[in-house]
Amino acid sequence: SSGINAEYGIQKPMHPQNHSDRIIFNVSGKRFETTFECLNGFPDTLLGTEEERKQFYDPVRDEYFLNRNQVAFDSVLYYYQSNGQIYRPANIPEKVFSREIEFYRLFPSKPVDTIAPSAVRQNGFWKRFQLLLWLFLEKPQSSSGARIWASLNIIIILISVCNLISESMPVYRNNPRAERIFFSIDACCVSYFTIDILLRFLSSPSKKKFLKEVLNWFDLLAVLPFYVELLLGENSGTDGMMALRVLRLFRITRVLKLIRHSQQMMLMLLVLRNCFSELGILFCTWLMGALVFGTIMHYIEVDANSGFDSVLYACWWAAVTMTTVGYGDMTPQTNIGKAFGSMILFISMIYIALPMTLIVSKFNTALEDWKQQERTQIYYKKRANEQNQTLSEGGEDSPTTEMA
Q1: In angstroms, rounded to a whole number, what is the distance separating the alpha carbons of residues 188 and 341?
Q2: Are 200 and 217 in contact (CB under 8 A)?
Q3: For residue 289, pLDDT beyond 80
Q4: Is the Cβ–Cβ distance between 163 and 184 less than 8 Å?
Q5: Which of 44, 87, 254, 403 has its CA 20 to 30 A from that of 379?
Q6: Strand order of the sheet with strand 63-66?
Q7: Alpha carbon distance 306, 316 (integer Å)
Q8: Distance between alpha carbon 359 and the CA centroid of its chain, in Å?
Q9: Which long-range contacts (CB under 8 A, 24 or more apart) does 64-71 make?
Q10: What Å distances lie between residue 184 and 72, 79, 97, CA to CA?
Q11: Any idea what DSSP says for residue 65?
Q12: What is the pLDDT confidence band of residue 372, given thresholds at 50, 70 and 90?
């Protein structure tokens, strides 16, 4: 036999044409073993032919060495073993994983997911149900039913926001019939939101990660005022009614639920989360400028009866001037004050623009990464469709129909 004895390090020449032989990959120090038959079923991939594989062959150790991501290689082998299906491990960023499957030239026959199909089959009934429910709620592209649920979610959110706006109109105030209608609509929407957040919490693979997500807390704030209002009722006194009015403000957070249904808005949220330090610099820059310029302007205009009666009032003027808003409620009256105000306006455009360039740079980087991922997924989907079309035309004679 010309097989490889990896345990004792016997060096023998490899014969790819013998499909009974096993093949060993050393991926950054971790060894993986599979068969030539399994790999040769996908000749369009990097590891699918001996001609492509030989560039990584180490004749001393009689193995193939790849200086690539170890965790991602599990998914690479699963691709060959499952006839073209692939999944992304949850602990690998999507950007890193996209580079790996691009390097190996893998073309998934189905959309890439973070859950291995084998994981659904190997667990018990509750685990299988939990994973399938999680895919249904969090992955609209996983099935037609999931897409319908996501579309219904958007419709309910829009109905809830329209209901919130309509009930604030003066024409419907003190109208018992209109109040009952608005309450019924709100109750239906809140019931749907409650079911949605409970199902997503129960199906979440990691409850700790679920509680750390900011959008999930927005979902909770969207339904909490309704239940608190039911518990307190209308006979809660003046202080209670003020508390209810404050709680009702949180109902507007329901519109933030739309963020999870838009990849572009999720990108914006990701950029803001990654730019906390830059935003802190921008805030400190704006605050220091308002204090310095406001103090100077106060002492310039203090005797001109122009509204700069204190440093605090002058700082308000400096803040709106630096942001180029300029409400016009306070204006300098002296010539020196007008000249200094013009100088502040010019300086502030540069003063605030410098930290903004850092934020814009991060946003452009994140946007390019997202566009690259979109192009990669479209490319993989196109290649998968081409392979499926080849399979349907070639029938059983196609090499990709062989399974290990």
Answers
A1: 54
A2: no
A3: yes
A4: no
A5: 403
A6: 30-35, 22-27, 63-66, 57-58
A7: 14
A8: 18
A9: 64/23, 64/24, 64/25, 64/26, 65/25, 65/26, 66/25, 66/26, 66/27, 66/28, 67/28, 68/27, 68/28, 68/100, 68/103, 69/27, 69/28, 69/96, 69/100, 70/27, 70/28, 70/29, 70/30
A10: 50, 51, 47
A11: E
A12: confident
Of the candidates 132, 110, 118, the one whose C-alpha atom is nearest the C-alpha of residue 377 is 110
Q: Express each pLDDT in 163-202 by its tens digit.
A: 888 888 888 888 888 888 988 998 999 899 899 889 989 8
- Cross-strand pairs, 58: 63
Cα–Cα–Cα angle for 381, 403, 33, nearest 5°?
95
**Pairing mode, strands 57-58 and 30-35:** unpaired
Phi-psi region for residue 389, left (φ > 0), alpha (ψ -120 to 50) or beta?
Answer: alpha
Angle between helices 214-232 and 176-203 (to 10 degrees): 140
Q: How far is CA 394 from its chain centroid?
A: 40
Integer Cα distance of 324 and 347 in angstroms? 11
What are the start-end ranges of the E strands in 296-400?
none
- In the block, which residue shows the tokens 């609509």? 185
- CB 13, CB 2: distance < 8 Å: yes
The Cα–Cα gap between 352 and 271 comes to 19
Measured over the CA atoms of residue 379, residue 380, residue 385 and residue 390, the dihedral's sign is positive
Q: CA-to-CA distance for 132 and 5, rounded, in angstroms? A: 41
Residue 293's closest CA among 342, 255, 234?
342
| The total number of residues written for the chain in this structure | 404
Contact 351/289 with Cβ under 8 angstroms? yes
67 versus 253: the higher-pLDDT residue is 67
CB atoms within 10 A of CB 8: 5
Cα–Cα distances in Å, from 221 out to 137, 197, 207, 347?
20, 11, 18, 41
- What is the phi/psi pair of residue 329, to 5°? -75, -25
Q: Where are the beta strands (DSSP E) in 253-397?
A: none
User: Which band of pLDDT confidence, cut at 50, 70 and 90, is reported for residue 112?
Assistant: low
Q: What is the rounded distance in angstroms from the CA atom of residue 339 to the CA atom of residue 343?
A: 6
Burial tier of 67 (Cβ tally within 10 Å: 0-12, 13-18, 19+): exposed
Going by their DSSP bridges, the two strands 22-27 and 63-66 should be labelled as parallel
